[in-house]
């Protein structure tokens, strides 16, 4: 059995785009759940999504637990050995309080890749495969979140370019989610149920295309 860790923010957690019970999509609707079904019984898919999670920054309003770098190492130690780690982070770094450029956000993802590679977290001490997924750009209209994400639309348009550059530099796999999904018009930055399905299918294809060593 192979094991994949899906490490992300609210769009991995499954935060809904509109008010629904628990504000979270059910397990079979979230993209890691779709991935689990498609990969089949020979894969263990671990969901590690947290709403508000950043790449490498403590959040002065929501708390230090939102720092994706702080939690990554204990998370990996809890679940190893891992064959694959999928990272989809960066949207929350767009919040104006962090004042980051797209390049700096991508560098945060690069720091996470470096942390993973510094640990013997794979099977038999190998380094797990790493798949960097650039989040889709935000919508131009971010509704009541517009002041929190001021300037996010323009910055998020550059995500794929900078994320791919960082992934290539660290010899990690890369996928641009904007090829298959877009942020919901309901709130401007979350995925709707159909987008979760489409993303799950696309990532399953990316996983299958990795040259797995038996």
From TrEMBL:
Protein's recorded name: Lysophospholipase L1
Annotated ranges, domain SGNH hydrolase-type esterase: 6-196
Organism name: Cognatishimia maritima
Gene3D superfamilies to which the protein is assigned, alphabetical: SGNH hydrolase
GO molecular function: hydrolase activity, acting on ester bonds
SUPFAM superfamilies xrefs: SGNH hydrolase (SSF52266)
